[in-house]
Design goal:
alpha+beta, 5 strands, 6 helices, 37% helix
Length: 155
């Protein structure tokens, strides 16, 4: 069983993963707060989040401006509570869901990543027929597959 690195959420607020991203952006969760779920990552999860930030999210931010993370690290209990896959890369700090305001923005980001960055998996996630978020992952410990899934034409 994994032990949590942190026992106090205050530490998470200040931990900087990269130039523009802090750990709290990847660990805060309304579901975790509502259900009293501990969503504190371990050292290896934080290292994976840092690699994701440096290799994928920082280049996206430089190109598109401020990025809002809607889901990042998920403890096993939180992942179960939100209905996440048992093999979700969110469990290991390898994935983030990014808020996108429109199909147009989602596809611009999608195409930028495909044409310029190394990534493991990228999905345009839909809810009720509308773009919900851009899910992107990065593996620091193995080959990145560049696996993509979208209902839209990739240019």
């Amino acid at each position: 069983m994994k032990n949590s690195l942190f026992t106090n959420q205050d530490y998470l607020c200040d931990m900087q993963l990269s130039q523009h991203f802090h750990l709290i952006e990847f660990t805060r969760s309304a579901t975790a707060l509502r259900q009293g779920i501990d969503n504190n990552p371990e050292i290896e999860d934080i290292e994976a989040l840092q690699a994701l930030c440096i290799n994928v999210l920082e280049p996206l931010r430089r190109r598109f401006g401020v990025i809002r993370i809607t889901s990042g690290y998920r403890s096993p209990k939180l992942n179960e509570a939100v209905g996440g896959s048992r093999t979700s890369q969110h469990l290991y700090g390898e994935a983030a869901d990014i808020h996108v305001g429109s199909v147009e923005v989602a596809m611009k980001m999608f195409n930028f990543v495909i044409n310029n960055l190394t990534f493991d998996q990228m999905l345009v996630e839909m809810k009720r027929g509308k773009v919900h978020c851009l899910h992107i992952s990065y593996r620091q410990d193995g080959p990145n597959r560049r696996k993509v899934s979208s209902n839209y034409e990739i240019k």
